[in-house]
Amino acid sequence: MADEKKPETEEAAATDAAPKAEAAAPAEEKSTTVTDLSQLGEAMAAADAPTPAPAATPVTPVIDPSTPVQPQIDAQGRSYATGKRKDAVARVWIKPGKGEVTVNKRSIDTYFARPVLRMVINQPFVAAARDKQYDVICTVKGGGLSGQAGAVRHGISKALSLFEPALRETLKKGGFLTRDARVVERKKYGKAKARRSFQFSKR
After folding, report:
1. Where are the extended beta strands (E) located within 2-85?
2. What tens digit of pLDDT does each residue of 139-183 get?
3. Model confidence at 28: pLDDT above 70
4. What is the torsional sign of CA 103, 107, 111, 116?
5. CA-to-CA distance for 164 and 81, rounded, in angstroms?
6. 61 contact partners, CB below 8 Å, separation of at least 6
7. Which element (helix H / strand E) includes 39?
8. DSSP states of 72-140
């Protein structure tokens, strides 16, 4: 019985060894491909070949702050800017002239009848020592007359700084280039206005 079991175990061992040998055969083929001298020379040549340089990233130019800023003037010799105040928005064009100001196709004396509003509009020119040297054409909408005058002043200041960049420091120091962020406070529920309460009645 022992002799009969030995051949069976030998046959089983032989059948188990056959797939292992077949599995090892491809590994031997792979190893021969690496050890082949001709392919080894090709691999060495490929390794010695120079690798392509990575694509150069675009470099943003550095602007020298000491370089003078160029004026922004259109083909008609004008500078344009947008001014805002409260709910008013003004589009302003300025060009060298005699100091004429046109607002919504009307003269400034007709549109802004109050002298205080005309004084507000003329403040940037007085601060920059450019009074009666520029003509102003502007369109303004939204808000009331006070807000519109502030919007025109803001637009004139910005346009003047674009026409003559050297005046920017003077206008900035006077606060003419800063957009005034003060607006009407919203109404709250349970209140007559933003802060105003309804009249109290004890009974």
Report:
1. 79-85
2. 999 999 999 999 999 999 999 999 999 999 999 999 999 999 999
3. no
4. positive
5. 13
6. none
7. helix 37-48
8. ---TTS-EEEEEEETTEEEEEEEEESS--EEETTEEHHHH--SHHHHHHHHHHHHHTT-TTSEEEEEEE
Token code pair at residue 61: 């130019």
Which residues on adjacent β-strands are paired with residue 90? 83, 140
Residue 117 CA from chain centroid, whole number: 35
| Number of residues that this document lists for the chain | 203
- pTM beyond 0.70, yes or no: no
CA dist 131 to 125, 158, 160, Å?
Answer: 5, 16, 12
Q: Of 142, 125, 144, whose CA–CA distance to 134 is shortest?
A: 125
60-82 residue pLDDT tens? 766 666 678 899 999 999 999 99
Cα→Cα distances 137→53, 170, 171, 190, Å: 57, 23, 20, 45
Residue 151 near residue 87 (C-beta atoms within 8 A)? no
